[in-house]
Amino acid sequence: MKKELIIFFIAIALLTMAQECQTNKDTKDKVSPYIGGTSGLSIQFGDGAPPGEVFDRGQYPFDIDVKLLNVGETDIMKENVKVTITGLNPNDFGKPESFFIKDGIAEDVLATYKDFEGNIIKPSETFVTFSGLNFVSTLTGNFESTVRADVCYNYKTEAVADGCIRKDVLSVDADAVCQVQEQKKVFNSGAPIQVIKFEELPSGTDKIRYLFTIKHVGSGDVYAPGTNCPTERTAKNKIHFKIESSVTDLDCAGLIEGSGKEGNIMLREGEQTIRCVQQTSSNLDYLDRIKITLTYDYGESIDETILVKKST
After folding, report:
1. What is the pLDDT of residue 28?
2. How far apart are CA 199 and CA 184, in angstroms?
3. Coil, helix or strand for 118?
4. What is the DSSP string of 50-62?
5. How far apart are CA 221 and CA 230, in angstroms?
6. pLDDT at 27
C-alpha cells in the first residue's frame, strides 16, 4: 500500500510539472511578438544552376540562379539587394564585368512573419538569374573554377523589453509592479544582430541606468546601413542604433555620429554594450515599454565548384 501511495504522488508531481512547463511555454509564446531566430536571408544556388560540369568552345549554355529565402522578420526592398557573381573570368564567357553584378533585383524579398493567431507564415523564394552563360574559350585540358555568389542586403533588428519606472528608485519592495535592479527579458525579431542582454540598475536616488549588450550572431559580415557592403574597413561592423522610450530625457553613451537616443555604434569583436541613463521623477510605479531598432547592411556568400571540360 505504501509503495502504491509513493507511485501515486510521484505521478501527481510529474503531471503538475508538465502542466507548469506547458503553461510557461504558452505564456512565452503569447508574450513574444516575434518568431525569433538568428538569420536574415537563406542563400542557395538553384538546382543545376550552375551545373557541376560544362564544356569549352561554347557548347554548353547554362544559367546561374541565386535563390533567396527571407527566414528573418524584415522585408527587404528590391532596390536594397546586390548580388555579385565572382570566380568566373568574364572573357571566358564573352560577357562584360557588369553582367555579373545586379545592383537591385526584380522583386522585394518578403519576410517570414507571425499572424494575429500566432501562425508562422513563410514567404516564397525569390530567384536572381544570370542567364545565357557559355564558356567560349578553348581549353588545353580540364580545369575547375569556383563560382561564388556574394549577396548584400539592408536589414533590421527590432528588440523590445520592459524597463521599470519607480517612485522610489532604490526600493526593493517585492510586491511592487516591477523591479529596477534586475536583468530584463528581451525579445528580438529574427535577424543576425541581436540584443542579447538588458540590465537595469539604479544610479542614485533619481536616476536609472540601462545596459544593452548587442551581438553579431550571424555567419556573414555587417556594415553601416546604406553602404552596400563596401571593401572599406571604415564601414564594417558599424550599426545604426535607435531607442524609443516614453521617458523623454533618456541619454545613451557609446554612440558615434549621433547622441541621445539615436546614432551609430561600432561592434568590437562582434559585441558592444550601450549605456543609457534617465532621470526619474514619477509619482507612480509602472512598466516602460522600450523598443530598440538596429539597422545595417549585411553580406553573405555561397560557393559552388564547376568543372570546365575540354571537348574532343
Report:
1. 42
2. 6
3. coil
4. S-SEEESTT---E
5. 11
6. 35
Alpha carbon distance 304, 51 (integer Å): 9
Which amino acid is it at 65? D
Cβ(299)–Cβ(229) below 8 Å: yes
Q: From CA 14, how far away is CA 89, in angstroms rounded? A: 65
Q: 162, 178 in Cβ contact below 8 A? A: yes
pLDDT tens readout for residues 248-259: 788 999 898 887
pLDDT surpasses 90 at 311? no
For the entire predicted model, the pTM comes to 0.86
Pairing, β 53-55 against β 286-309:
parallel
pLDDT digits (tens, 9 = 90+) for 42-61: 999 999 999 999 999 999 99
Q: How far is CA 103 from CA 146, 153, 222, 258, 261, in A?
A: 22, 10, 18, 29, 32
Q: Tell me: pLDDT of 114 over 80.
A: yes
Alpha-carbon distance of 224 to 296, in angstroms, equals 5
Contact between 105 and 126 under an 8 Å Cβ cutoff? The reply is yes
Provide the 10 A C-beta neighbour count for residue 156: 21
Q: In whole angstroms, give the CA distance from residue 173 to residue 57.
A: 81
Q: What structural domains does the chain harbor? A: 41-154+299-309 (2.60.40.3880), 155-298 (2.60.40)
Continuous segment of H or E residues that includes residue 297:
strand 286-309
Question: What are the DSSP E strand ranges found in 168-237?
Answer: 182-184, 187-188, 193-202, 207-216, 221-223
Phi, psi of 199 (to 5 degrees): -120, 135
Greatest alpha-carbon span in the chain: 90
Q: Locate 292 and state its grid cell.
A: 530598440
Helices (H), 117-269: none
pLDDT in tens, 167-178: 888 887 888 899
* Residue found under cell 528581451: 186
Yes or no: say if 189 and 74 are a contact pair by the CB < 8 Å rule: yes
